[in-house]
């Protein structure tokens, strides 16, 4: 069975992938994510996932490499990981009571067979009205807000209560790794998982 290499250093993606009970390795890509235009969220995550997978695949003779990238999208603007508490606070204040979307690109390279698969998952999110007090409660309780493309943790801590409704890819939203897409891709390349 071909080894699987996740082109990510995200502990959330690693933890989610482990749910598939498939052996895997992890290798960061070192890709400079700032070199691409930030206009279309779907195209952006697709291209960055591809760049990350290709960077890791170049270092190997065989195996299956999977690259990922995620961004949020609100009111015509791509939202990425906030760089500060103030940015996270202001973002959550803007998102309060609003709809936004979360995109995750997946790019799979089967090095041995020379096959490439790519897809994007989208989750539409309706956030309930949240107060400044609630925003501060979350930011005080979880210092990892700069690690989430949304600016908040959709799966845990107090911020999980911010989401009123979500429609789309469950693990794509929770961990930036759409497991259903990955399993379908592995089946398509006949990986015995």
Mean pLDDT: 91
Low-confidence stretches: none
User: Main β-sheet, in a few words?
Assistant: 7 strands, mixed
- SS element count, helices: 6
What class, by secondary structure content? Answer: alpha/beta
N-to-C CA distance: 9 Å
Order of helices and strands: EHEHEEHEEHEHH
| CATH architectural name | Alpha-Beta Complex
Give Rg in angstroms. 17 Å
Share of residues in helices = 25-40%
What is the beta-strand fraction? Answer: 25-35%
Give the tally of β-strands: 7
Shape: elongated
**Fold-level CATH name:** Maf protein
Highest CATH level, the class:
Alpha Beta
Number of domains: 1
Give a verbal description of the structure:
The chain is an alpha/beta fold. It has one domain (4-188): Alpha-Beta Complex (Maf protein), CATH 3.90.950.10. It is built from six helices and seven strands; from the N terminus they run βαβαββαββαβαα. It has helices at residues 11-18, 41-57, 85-95, 132-141, 170-175, 179-188; strands at residues 4-7, 25-26, 64-74, 77-79, 99-110, 115-127, 163-168. Strands 1, 2, 3, 4, 5, 6 and 7 form a seven-stranded mixed beta sheet that branches. The N and C termini lie close together (9 Å).
Which short descriptors sum up this protein?
Maf protein; alpha/beta; 26% strand; 7-stranded mixed beta sheet; 193 residues
């Amino acid at each position: 069975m071909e080894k699987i290499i996740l082109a990510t250093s995200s502990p959330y993606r690693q933890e989610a992938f482990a749910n598939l009970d498939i052996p895997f390795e992890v290798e960061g890509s070192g890709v400079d994510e700032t070199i691409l235009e930030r206009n279309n969220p779907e195209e952006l995550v697709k291209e960055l996932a591809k760049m990350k997978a290709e960077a890791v695949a170049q270092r190997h003779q065989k195996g299956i490499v999977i690259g990922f990238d995620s961004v949020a999208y609100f009111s015509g603007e791509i939202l990425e990981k906030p760089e500060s508490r103030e940015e996270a606070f202001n973002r959550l204040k803007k998102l309060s009571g609003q709809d936004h979307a979360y995109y995750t690109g997946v790019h799979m390279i089967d090095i041995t067979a020379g096959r490439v698969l790519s897809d994007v998952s989208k989750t539409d999110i309706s956030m309930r009205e949240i107060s400044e007090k609630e925003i501060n409660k979350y930011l005080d309780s979880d210092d990892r807000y700069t690690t989430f493309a949304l600016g908040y943790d959709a799966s845990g801590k107090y911020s999980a209560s911010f989401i009123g409704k979500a429609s789309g890819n469950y693990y794509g939203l929770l961990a930036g790794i759409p497991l259903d897409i990955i399993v379908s891709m592995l089946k398509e390349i006949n990986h015995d998982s």
